[in-house]
Amino acid sequence: MNGFFSRMLQRFSLISALVVLVMGSNNIRADSFDDAVNHYLKGFDACQEANGLLRANRISAAKQKLNVYHKILGEAQRMDPSIVKTNKRDMEGNIKFCRRVATNIEVEQATPFIDKAIAQCDLAQKALKGKKPEAAMEHLMAFKAHKEEAWNITDKLSDIFSIRNQVKRCQRLEKKIMSAGKKQEAINLSVETVKEESSSYAETCSQALKSLNASSIDEVSLKNATKSIVLAKSHKKNVKDESVAFDTFAANPKHEAKALVASNLKKGDKCLASAEKLVVKKRKELKKATATLDSYIGSLKSAAKLCEAARSVTKTKASDSVYAKAKAAYQKAQSSESSLRKKLRKDKYYLAYPNSPKVKVINKTLSKTSSCLADTNKRMTKMFSSIKAEKKAFAARKAKEEAARLAKASAAEKAKIKAEIAKKKKLEAAKAAKLAKVAADARATEIAAAKAAAKQAAEAAVKLAAEAAASVASAVTSTAKTETQPETTGSSAVLAVSGVITFSQISESLAVIYANGSQPEAKTISAELSRNGFDQDVYVVSPDSKINLKNKDNTLHRIKATDDYNDISVKLAKLQPRQKRPVKVSWRDNTIVQIRSDKGALAASYVANIPSAAYQVVEFKVGKSSHGFSFVTIPPGADKVTILIPNHDPVVVSFASGGSQLIPLVKKGEEVGEVVIELN
């Protein structure tokens, strides 16, 4: 019996070991596949750059980038050969795309040779028309030689409709040269030529029109479309030059080819008229796109220069004047960067040309500017704290020195020293008051404008709320007189909270205001990440909600939620291209975290986790220190409003504290601004 159990135990152990081995092998394969794809995507970036360079007509540079792609593709294949045989993580689509890029580069390299070949063919046709068959044959031989050179680079030329048609025309020309003097053969060849050339006329123009109707068009596409129009015209000319065929149609009006040729010519003429108009329109559009992208580049370079100026100021000795100088430059750079980022998110030209060299310059400069702003912001926060600490330390040293002088002085000297100290304090107080007045006067206009806007918005909201309440009450009275009337809002109820938030330091970009008394429901919100960043600047969630993260970019992103102020750091997800994943809001409520990708060029967005369904997002005007707001989403029974600002303590407004309130804005225990509140 013991032997039986021993054998069973051995078998079970063996099976377990095999299961572990198989599972481990699967995990290794999964890791190997993901590692290989992640490595491949580095090469795919090079492939996309090659495509952009190709579109910019920089063939040599495009070829170099494609060589980088092929090198990394080979390395990735050695890591896991299956990556080139799967459609997982869009590998099939990516590889097909890069094969097309490789073909297009080869075609561009071969184009000069095929152009020479067609030019020789045209000369052969001209010689034949001039009744010089020997000269025509010489040019035809030159055509064949150049064609061979082109085909040695790539045989994919035969897949291109326009080139294929031109080659066929030249091959027919050889038959014409050979049949010179043979009447019936000449008639048959001429009829065959007008049929094929008229068909090519309509089809070539149709292809040009199709490419011109694309949502975005670059210089290369426009050049190719123009080339196709010229080619279409040459096909029409070739038709008209075939006098033998038209003489045949005149002699035989019911000839089977006559109606077909006429139909093709009519179709081609209609297409050509549309295509030529569209070329003019698209050229204007492309010129506008170039000018728009150039203006973005110029503005971003100016913003980057301003930010670098602010950063260099923060590296000098800290003082109030130095801080003010750095702050002014920083706010200008921040305002420009923020404005441009919002424009780019919706700009049709920026979105239409992702691989354009100009768009790449924009992305690079935007990344550089964003990085500079983040670093300068940290430096300025440190400088602000340093200035306050230095002032405090200086005051303490001075008080200590004065106390020491008094301790050593005689009775007669003490009175004199005290008078001297009092006089100095009075002068310092007067100087401080003067500086404070200058600063207050500088902000007065901004604060007054913010207050006026907030007050106007609050009054309008209160009026609308009162009208809505009156309308509801009237409807209830007229339709249900016997029912108990609903309680109307008492005169003491708060209908709106308005105010002005003023920062002493650098202003944050937004606040989220919410009222208690409205229980939220756990829900799932969507956040999409593309190459421009997230689709919103701020998302609002409640505890235990979910965020459905979706990666619309073609590269891997690692998404993290952080709030250094509240010591929150959560790894949310690793998203492969076109992958989506729901993540739970696991950090504490009453906070605003930043969500960002590990890709530095992308701006962060915010997620506010609040325990209320009654809220409002307030976006601050970049470059300003004072910001007005009006909050009217206040549920019945609410007795307070909370204002959440990134990197600051929450500001709690209690309705019991009265209609007008002045609340300090606090950061790490220091007062760094104020919030003026009016309850309406």
Description:
The protein is α+β, with helices and mostly antiparallel strands and 680 residues long. The protein has 4 domains: 32-159, no CATH class; 215-415, no CATH class; 493-519 and 612-679; 520-611, Immunoglobulin-like, CATH 2.60.40. The chain is built from 13 helices and 17 strands. The protein has helices at residues 2-55, 59-79, 91-129, 133-153, 161-178, 183-212, 219-241, 243-251, 256-314, 320-346, 348-352, 357-408, 411-479; strands spanning 497-503, 510-515, 524-530, 533-534, 538-541, 546-551, 557-563, 568-575, 580-584, 591-597, 605-609, 615-619, 626-631, 640-644, 651-654, 660-667, 670-679. Strands 5-11-10-7-8 form a 5-stranded mixed sheet, with no helix packed on it. The protein has a 4-stranded antiparallel sheet with strand order 13-1-17-16. Strands 12-2-14-15 form a 4-stranded antiparallel sheet, with no helix packed on it. A hairpin with a 6-residue loop joins strand 14 and strand 15 (651-654). Helix 3 (91-129) packs parallel to helix 5, helix 6 (183-212) packs across helix 8 and helix 9 packs antiparallel against helix 10 (320-346). The radius of gyration is 38 Å and the shape is elongated. Residues 17-30 and 475-491 have low confidence and may be disordered.
